[in-house]
């Protein structure tokens, strides 16, 4: 590498005229503009198309050009999807499964992260490795035994299996990320606090948790998207139609109407998308940071 | 000092619940699933042992060969696509848009958070030919080409899948790689420019080697995710036409729940796990070697 570098340097140095600084930016700027415009069209047009289609009647969708605007703006498609299409029920199921799992996962994960990073004991790096191993293994490896257990314990007819499975599968990343955040909190802080008479458990709750508040929000957001968007686990453990989450419900949406009603179908897709869009609108910087930091675990 | 932080009772209280839930939901089922591989049956009818029959079936099952091949093909193509598209975007952000890139970054990242099922259904309708001509086929018609039945053959369905998954995730890899590129000190680039190196040369000899670590972690992350692809395929093609776009994950799911054969399903899950571990190991070893050489 070093030899190539010097070779480049020497060969380039021999050309006497420096690159023309004034003309270049203008030339590049035009193609940059075109590339960015294309990029934005490719990213955004499918969503615009989806939204416009959600406002068309079946006849409008089937018989007019796909590019055209709706002839009548059928806002009723949304209420149709919400009630007749059961999307309202599915959203409720999703919330009832996701929120408890999220709370449980954050609570357990933060405590474990604290125990693994702040506390001093033998075998903690090995324990962290055991948690990390869980991120490598595909979820297919745990579905069938869990299905058996949930069936035999009678949990199958409830949202319990989803809450438990989401908590368990989300723990590795939560523990890892919380342990990483605790790395920046100095241990001395807790030693000082415990000298003042507070027990270590109390120091964990009253001192450390407020300090990682920001991290909790970030990890919570990341996990929210993972669980909310999950299909595999929801598909495996919701045999009952009334227990379907939004993703499973959307996948089976056409079945509920007899013939496919395109307007309500697109309305249902839109409802699903707009939920995450709304969160992203307000918290996008946090979401981007959180999701990418979850990836650089190495 | 360490007496307080070494309090065993506190460690057990803090770590215990998480370790217990993790063990019960993940560790124990993994071992259990291994045991299922040597049985035949399902939860409702009960299980009977059948030795290594599942494993010999695995070796000779053409559907498994196809699913394995499809999984690997999909993982390699999509990983390459995601990382290359992400890298090009990151270069665009850093060197051309500079400070103006924040808005574009945020917009291009957006599809990452969308539910895969929604995106799958959207692309299905976007590329469809009947009952209504979707936007892509309309565009083809507009420039005088015939409509293509994208989901009629496994080959074209595969490419729609690839396009969709790159569309979905390139913004993610762009931000990931952007973070690596922005760390390159300005002085290094400046001195290269003063030496007269321009454009591709700067990228090839300075930017690329310096961003190799983050490039490698993107690669590992991407291949790890694409080997486990499930949601996008179920929503877009459901494995069809026939089993033309069925990866191991979906074949395992169908074997277990459509054909109620948990024993063989577990064996396929085991194969998938082994493939994931092997590929990660290989990529990891290769990346280590590259880093020490660079």
UniProtKB/TrEMBL annotation, chain B:
One Pfam family here: BPD_transp_1
Domain of life assignment: Bacteria
GO cellular component: plasma membrane
Gene3D superfamilies recorded: MetI-like
Transmembrane annotation, as ranges: 12-32, 74-96, 103-123, 157-182, 202-223, 262-284
Stretches assigned to the ABC transmembrane type-1 domain: 68-283
Membrane topology, from the record: Multi-pass membrane protein
GO BP, sorted A to Z: transmembrane transport
Location relative to the cell: Cell membrane
Family: Belongs to the binding-protein-dependent transport system permease family.
Keyword annotations from UniProtKB, A to Z: Cell membrane, Membrane, Transmembrane, Transmembrane helix, Transport
Native organism: Streptomyces spiralis
Protein name from the UniProt record: ABC transporter permease
């Amino acid at each position: 590498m070093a030899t190539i570098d010097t070779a480049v340097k020497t060969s380039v140095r021999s050309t006497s005229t420096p690159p023309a600084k004034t003309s270049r930016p203008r030339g590049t700027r035009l193609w940059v503009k075109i590339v960015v415009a294309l990029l934005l069209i490719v990213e955004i047009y499918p969503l615009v198309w989806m939204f416009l289609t959600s406002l068309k009647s079946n006849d409008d969708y089937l018989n007019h050009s796909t590019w055209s605007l709706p002839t009548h703006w059928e806002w009723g498609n949304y209420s149709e999807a919400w009630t007749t299409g059961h999307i309202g029920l599915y959203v409720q199921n999703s919330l009832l499964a996701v929120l408890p799992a999220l709370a449980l996962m954050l609570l357990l994960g933060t405590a474990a992260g604290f125990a693994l990073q702040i506390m001093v004991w033998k075998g903690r790096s090995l324990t962290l490795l055991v948690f990390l191993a869980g991120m490598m293994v595909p979820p297919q490896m745990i579905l069938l035994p869990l299905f058996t257990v949930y069936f035999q314990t009678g949990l199958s007819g409830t949202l319990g299996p989803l809450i438990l499975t989401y908590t368990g599968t989300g723990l590795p990343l939560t523990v890892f990320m919380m342990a990483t955040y605790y790395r920046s909190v100095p241990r001395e802080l807790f030693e000082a606090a415990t000298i003042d008479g507070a027990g270590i458990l109390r120091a964990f709750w009253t001192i450390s948790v407020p300090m990682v508040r920001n991290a909790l929000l970030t990890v919570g957001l990341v996990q929210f998207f993972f669980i909310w968007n999950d299909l595999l686990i929801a598909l495996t453990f919701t045999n009952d139609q009334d227990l379907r989450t939004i993703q499973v419900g959307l996948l089976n949406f056409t079945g509920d109407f007899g013939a496919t009603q395109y307007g309500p179908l697109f309305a249902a897709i839109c409802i699903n998308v707009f939920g995450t869009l709304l969160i992203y609108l307000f918290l996008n910087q946090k979401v981007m940071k959180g999701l990418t930091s979850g990836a650089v675990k190495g | 000092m360490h007496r307080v932080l070494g309090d065993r009772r506190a460690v057990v209280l803090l770590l215990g619940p998480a370790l217990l839930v993790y063990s019960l939901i993940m560790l124990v089922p993994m071992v259990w699933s291994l045991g299922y591989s040597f049985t035949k049956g399902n939860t409702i009818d009960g299980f009977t042992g059948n030795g290594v029959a599942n494993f010999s079936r695995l070796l000779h099952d053409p559907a498994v060969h196809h699913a394995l091949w499809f999984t690997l093909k999909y993982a390699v193509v999509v990983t390459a696509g995601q990382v290359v598209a992400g890298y090009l975007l990151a270069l665009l952000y850093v060197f051309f848009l500079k400070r103006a890139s924040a808005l574009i970054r945020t917009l291009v990242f957006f599809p990452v958070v969308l539910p895969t099922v929604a995106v799958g259904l959207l692309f299905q309708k976007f590329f469809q030919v009947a009952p209504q001509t979707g936007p892509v086929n309309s565009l083809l018609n507009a420039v005088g080409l015939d409509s293509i039945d994208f989901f009629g053959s496994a080959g074209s369905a595969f490419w729609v899948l690839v396009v969709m998954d790159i569309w979905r995730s390139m913004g993610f890899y762009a931000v990931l790689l952007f973070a690596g590129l922005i760390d390159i000190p300005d002085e290094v680039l400046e001195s290269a420019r003063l030496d007269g190196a321009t454009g591709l040369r700067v990228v090839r000899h300075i930017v690329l080697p310096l961003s190799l670590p983050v490039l490698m972690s993107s690669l590992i992350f991407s291949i790890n995710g694409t080997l486990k692809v499930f949601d996008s395929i179920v929503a877009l093609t459901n494995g069809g036409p026939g089993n033309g776009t069925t990866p191991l994950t979906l074949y395992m799911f169908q074997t277990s729940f459509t054909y109620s054969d948990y024993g063989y399903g577990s064996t396929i899950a085991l194969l998938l796990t082994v493939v994931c571990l092997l590929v990660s190991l290989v990529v990891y070893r290769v990346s280590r070697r590259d880093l020490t050489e660079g």
